[in-house]
Amino acid sequence: MKKTRFELFALTSLTIGAVYFTYLSYHLPTEGFSGGIGPQSFPRATFFFIIVLNFILIARCLKKIPRNELRLSLIVPSLPIRTISLIFLIVLFFVFWDYLGFLLSSFLFIFSSAYFFAPLEKRSFTGSCFFALGFSLLIHFLFVYGFKIPLPAGFFERYI
Amino acid sequence: MTNYSLVLDVLLDPMCMFLTFAGTFMGLVFGALPGLTATMGVALLVPLTFSLPKVYALGMMLGVYVGGIAGGAVSAILLNIPGTPSAVVTTLDGYPMAKKGEAAKALGWAVTSSFLGGFISWGILVTVAPQIARYALKFGPPEYMALALFGLMIIASISAKSLLKGIVAGLFGLLLSFVGVDQMTGDLRFTFDSINLMTGIAIMPALIGFYAIPQILDTFEEQSSQQETETFTKKLKLDNFFPSLLQIWKAKVIIFVSSIIGTFIGMVPGTGGNIASFLAYDQAKRLSKTPDEFGQGAVEGVIASETANNGVTGGALIPLLTLGIPGDSVTAVLLGGLMIHGLQPGPELFTKFPDVVAGIFTTLLIANIFMAVIQFGGIRLFVKILDIPNHFLLPILIILSVVGSFALRNNSFDVGVTIVLGLIGYFMSRGGFPMAPVVLGVVLGPMLESELRRSLIMSRGDWSIFYTRPITLFFLILSLMIILSTLYRSYRSFLERKGESLK
Q: Nearest to residue B10, comparing CAs of B370, B364, B352?
């Protein structure tokens, strides 16, 4: 049932997305100097196929669920709190990566992941701290000085 | 005789050997890290090699090229995260093998296949380069369109569990490829007034998003860190990872066919290792006596993918050296490197600079040997990655994914794209959608659309252009055969299921 929930969620989201993009594709220019094929043709055909195939897949999915268990909430997948927390941390890392800079944001991200997601018996504050600091510095030096690829410096910009 | 002495000059030059070794090592590191590609490695190296003698510089750049393509297999097999786009196909069977405790065996075969693919394409490069290059250059828009369509047909092969889901995933990849400026008319499509979306969704952030983020979240969710590490390392077999000559001999057909596919695709300008490995995988599955095992950890899948993507290295150099036309993105950068050193690729290169040509041929072979030696030496070290507890490994992978997608264009927007597509990919993969067709759609979508429209402009809207040119017709017939055989197989399995349910 868990997989069916994810399947239904993915299919419903894709279908809604495809319908919205089909609507947008009607605002694209339709000049067809290449045998009637314009900038709108490929997207429209693709969205049309996605919608049709998704309906077939949704119908197949619904057939697997007993009638008495059919309800709208089935399209909402349930995620464990650990996964939601990790997704939240990743999003936070991205949001702050430009402001805090790579070094600080990656240190905070690695530290929180390594500390809070470790099994209780293996959880170590100093270990996670040193690991986060070491790895952030390693990547920073490797990319910035080794590969000459600048990473966001954030408010460390004056010092690095 | 003169040529042999030129080759010996290169072979006996310790500095040249050292720089080729260093380049290969650097390439392997670039290949293994998601987001860093061989193209980027060579591009970074061009200014650094400016002051070096021509052969030294080219040896180093070719080392990065060979290493960069081969290195992608390491993270593809061990972590299910392809280090380079050409290693996407390696994940299909490499990671299931690692899960079964056969990581070292998969790596051993990946290295051997990469070496053999590189070696065979090198052989073709030094013997029949000019003749084949002329043939490959007959490719015009209709041929490219047919090749792209043929490539998309491979979705049928890589969607083992559900063909319909594979097609939807491929179409979703196509959808992503529409974002940006229309290549033919310059109109903006689905950019939502964002300047960043005008150039479209870059392949690398999409690849990292669809492979790295879902894999990380899946691993994180499904098993506790302790259990995961234990299951992986308990099953790990570290003996006999070096394939025997007999095993290599048994795989000769797949190796040969994949090398030829890799070399030929390498020669076709604008293609690359990713397309070659998809095509080779499809052919290997068709040639195999046990096609059902593909996707479940079949070593033939790893062999086909790795042989083909390294076969591209020699193939892509053929049009570059003989006609000055790069076969893929890495050779496009190499072309710049050659020109910086005052070399104009083309027929005159062979007559005016025989020492450089001998140097290129020799260092390419040497780079392949170094690649195999370094990788074989490192297998025991590479598999140690699996010993790292997940609460340390997963944040490292997320950081590498984020930095990798940023490094391509130094643009934080690409990081956002990686995360958003990663979350979409996570929900899709949990719903049973395969990720490889999405990547195939993103890679081949622009080629299919623009070349079809370009062909129709060429023919003034006459569709007969697609069946009056022999190469185009050949690929279209192949595509049709794949569709018919897939439909036939689906119909047969439907009848079998129906028969079983009636019993």
A: B364
The confidence score (pLDDT) of residue B235 equals 55
Band of residue B237 on the pLDDT scale cut at 50, 70, 90 = low
Please write the tens of the pLDDT for every residue from B410-438: 888 999 999 999 999 999 988 888 888 88
Question: Residue B219, class by beta-carbon neighbours within 10 Å (0-12 exposed, 13-18 middle, 19+ buried)?
Answer: middle
Number of domains observed in the structure of chain B: 1
Three-state secondary structure along B297-364? Answer: CCHHHHHHHHHHHHHHHHHHHHHHHHHCCCCCHHHHHHHHHHHHCCCCCCHHHHHHCHHHHHHHHHHH
Instruction: Please give the Cα distance from B113 to B98 (Å, whole number).
Output: 17
Q: What is the pTM of this model?
A: 0.78
**A14 Cβ under 8 Å from any chain B Cβ:** yes
Taking an 8 Å cut-off on Cβ atoms, the answer to whether A149 and B182 are in contact is no
Q: What is the pLDDT of residues A15-27, one digit of tens each?
A: 999 999 889 888 8
Secondary structure (DSSP) of B242-273: S--HHHHHHTHHHHHHHHHHHHHHHHSTT--H
Q: Which of B188, B219, B418 is nearest to A82 (CA)?
A: B219
What is the domain extent for residue B383?
2-237+244-502
Cα–Cα dist B225/B229, whole Å: 6
pLDDT band with cut points at 50, 70 and 90 for residue B110: very high
A57 and B399 within 8 Å at the Cβ level: the answer is no
Is pLDDT of B323 > 50?
A: yes
Q: CA-to-CA distance for A41 and B304, rounded, in angstroms?
A: 35
Dihedral (CA of B294, B423, A77, A70) sign: negative
For residues B502 and B458, what is the distance between their CA atoms, to the nearest angstrom? 55
Residue type for position B181? V
Do residue B402 and residue A149 have CB atoms under 8 angstroms apart?
A: no
A98 touching B (Cβ < 8 Å) = yes
Does residue A124 sit at the B interface (CB-CB below 8 Å)? no
- On chain A, the residues whose CB falls within 8 A of the CB of B221 are 79-80, 82-83
Enumerate the residues of chain A whose CB falls inside 8 A of the CB of residue B164.
53, 56-57
List CB contacts (< 8 A) between B402 and chain A.
Answer: 93-94, 97
More reliable by pLDDT, B471 or B328 = B471
Residues from chain B that touch A50, judged by Cβ atoms under 8 A, are 168, 171-172, 175
Q: Is A88 on the interface with B (CB under 8 A)?
A: no
Mean pLDDT of A92-103: 90
Mean residue pLDDT of chain B comes to: 82
For residue B181, list its beta bridge partners.
B188
Nearest-neighbour CA in chain A from B217: distance (Å): 7
A 52-71 → B contacts, CB under 8 A: 53-54, 56-57
